[in-house]
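Here is one chain, start to finish.
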Amino acid sequence: MEAGGGGSPVPTEDDLVVLDEIAAKAREAVELLRAEMDGIRNGRLQVVEELFSRKSKVLKWLELKLPLAEPFIRQPAAEARQLPKILSELRDTVTEDSEMLSRMATAAGTVLREIEKVRDRNSLSGTYGKSGEKVSGLGTSRERLNKQL
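Its structure:
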């Protein structure tokens, strides 16, 4: 990177290669995130696991390389590669994907809590009502049979 007349850095050939690589990786990340979201919307939840490794690698690569592009983001070289537009799209897609995964995690947690309630309600320590209070006098059919005998 060399200083230009206006104080803005002028990208070198190596910088331009990095800008090209970042643009390509950012597009790849957007495609992976969209594939993940489409899979989730279509009930293919295994897509999260299938894409996790690739998605992680691409996003980590971008995390490490983006600082190299920062001095040039508002310059013609980045604009010619549509880098500001691609990065904006990536940001929006990451946000949407993150929100979707968060909602899935919340839903899974809710289901787990409900399963625990049902298990506790019908455990060996007694029978419990909907609100969690112990119901007395009902007993299991086996307990009633034993009392009658």
